[in-house]
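User: Earlier you gave me the apo prediction for this protein. Now I'd like the version with nicotinamide-adenine-dinucleotide bound, so I can compare the two side by side. Same sequence as before, with the ligand SMILES added.
Assistant: Got it. Here's the input I'm using:
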Amino acid sequence: MKILVTGGAGFIGSAVIRHIINNTQDSVVNLDKLTYAGNLENLLEVSDNPRYAFEQVDICNREELDRVLKQHQPNAVMHLAAESHVDRSIDGPAEFIQTNIVGTYTLLEATRSYWNNLSEKCKQAFRFHHISTDEVYGDLPHPDDDIDTVGRASARQASLKTDLQNEKLPLFTEQTAYEPSSPYSASKASSDHLVRAWLRTYGFPTLITNCSNNYGPYHFPEKLIPLVILNALEGKALPIYGKGDQIRDWLYVDDHAQALYLVATQGKIGETYNIGGHNEKQNIEVVETICEILDELRPLNNDAPSVGRANIEDVGRASARQDSLKADLQDLQSYKSLITYVTDRPGHDRRYAIDARKIEKELGWKPKETFETGLRKTVQWYLNNQQWCKNVQDGSYQRERLGVAK
Ligand SMILES: NC(=O)c1ccc[n+]([C@@H]2O[C@H](COP(=O)([O-])OP(=O)(O)OC[C@H]3O[C@@H](n4cnc5c(N)ncnc54)[C@H](O)[C@@H]3O)[C@@H](O)[C@H]2O)c1
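And here is the structure of the complex with nicotinamide-adenine-dinucleotide:
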């Protein structure tokens, strides 16, 4: 097969391409605009392979999409290109509407036109796999919620309340209604609707996957896990939004890449598959676990050249709480001392959790990593790849707080 992967220079797209080139005989065309989040360094281990090609193209550019499709003649498209950071979508939604909605529409139309001109046999075999997120479903009741306050917002919440009364915490299934909360998740929900409409209206062969939070190597350091690792290594504050009790279901990125390839090649046209890691964790637990792994792998009291007084001023600028931190830092025993609570994200979803039984039952996929093994691998990767971290932060982004613009 030849697979056109959009967004292949990003975090998940590059894991998908490394997986395909390293583990199959298929060829890949990576189509990516190379925004701040796209980095060809993520693909160094496969970029010399004759089965790999790169095209720097914006998915909103119809002419260029037509050219790439005609030139490379793919049998499948895996569509990952997107603006993907919720905080950025709060500061500037326009780019999210453009890429995630207009870009998906443009890609659907270009691919449909290409598909219409294929031979009947190639047409039958062709598939368009749209990669989406569990954030389109909105949020779920949290174990700490007051049962009486759940159920006021909507009919869906009311049915969730029944589950809660039966002492079951509900999960997102493929049937859960969409109720996105942020400009990011609303733009992804819109793109999912477009993809389903193209299937229903034009018979265009699509599949959709909705996945929980990914983590692992090559994750851009604006997202929680890499941000915490890198800030800790530099002795900077580890920001926790609100109380840090938001729950996410974490999936190691290579497990996701394997699931995506399986769906793209063996999934049933027209179906949706939810993908999750069965790892529900509160954000504060995630941050504390990273600190514990770092305390073990890079202990503060003997081998921490980049942590220490040089950065104390940096930590102590923001708040009174941080002023006291500044004092504590003089004899820091654990990275946990750097944890700092900051104002919550507006509209922050409380809990996500995926029911991944369908993909397990129908395609035999299960994640290989537990949260503990995956997180340890991730921390070790960031310790070993400090140069990558420096290279991807080009000066325009220095791990400052995003997503508080009104
Ligand atoms: N990261 C997660 O936890 C997660 C979870 C579920 C679903 N997803 C979805 O998976 C996909 C990939 O996520 P990610 O975390 O790898 O994102 P990312 O931000 O790391 O990468 C996005 C890639 O898309 C490219 N891109 C952006 N705009 C483009 C455009 N107009 N034309 C062509 N390329 C463009 C970027 O250059 C980058 O390489 C997204 O669709 C996202 O919604 C992500």
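For your comparison, keep in mind: The pocket of nicotinamide-adenine-dinucleotide is lined by residues 6-7, 9-13, 32-35, 37-38, 58-60, 80-84, 99, 103, 131, 133, 188, 211, 213-214, 220 (CB under 6 Å).
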